Structures are given as structure tokens and as C-alpha cells.
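Archive record:
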Amino acid sequence: MVIVEAEGSAQWQAATSDWLVASGCLYMMAWGLGCSSWDDSVDWALLGAFRFEDIPPERFVMTSWHENETLDDVFFFCKQCALHDSVNLAQTVLLHIAKQPAEQRIMDVYAQA
């Protein structure tokens, strides 16, 4: 789950998307500032990782952006509704992009979802 509360450069976003794909991310949800660009960025990173050839079903990365939803709603979706066609999603990583850390606030909202 990518929580965007501060924007970075396009190059940083592309590098982060490459890292998400290389790290084994299977479902990337984006919320916040310019969140729709994360959907595209991770899609391009996935295509690049497989040299624009067939992607094995167990490595396919589902992507979604949640532009007009509350963070509470997106966390609920993440915990209760997000599924992958080929793999059980066993863990969630919360990537908070912000100028100031807000770990406790983010974790509290996630726990309540």
C-alpha cells in the first residue's frame, strides 16, 4: 500500500516502482497525491522487469489507485477485499511517502480498518 502525502520526482517514483516489483510486490494500492500515476508506474516497472514479454501469473502485480476514497476505506479494502488470482497475499507493506513521519497515525488507522 503506497500512501502518498508528498510528491517525489518521476525518476524516484520509477525507481521505487522498480524496487516494489523486484521485491515481490503482488498487489500495489496507491492512495493520496497523484496516486493514479503510481498505478501506471508500477505497471511499467512490471513490464520492464519481464522485458515486455509474458508475465508468469504468480508474479503478476495487481494495481489500483484510490483517488476519491478515505484512507480508512482503502485500508479496509486492503485488508478485506484485495485478492490475487494466483497467490495468497500473506502480508501487507505500508509505504508512507511524506515530508514528516506519521507512523503511529498510519498504524492506528490501519489497525482500525
In short: Residues 2-112 form one domain. The chain has one domain: 2-112. Strands lie at 2-4, 27-32, 62-65, 95-97.
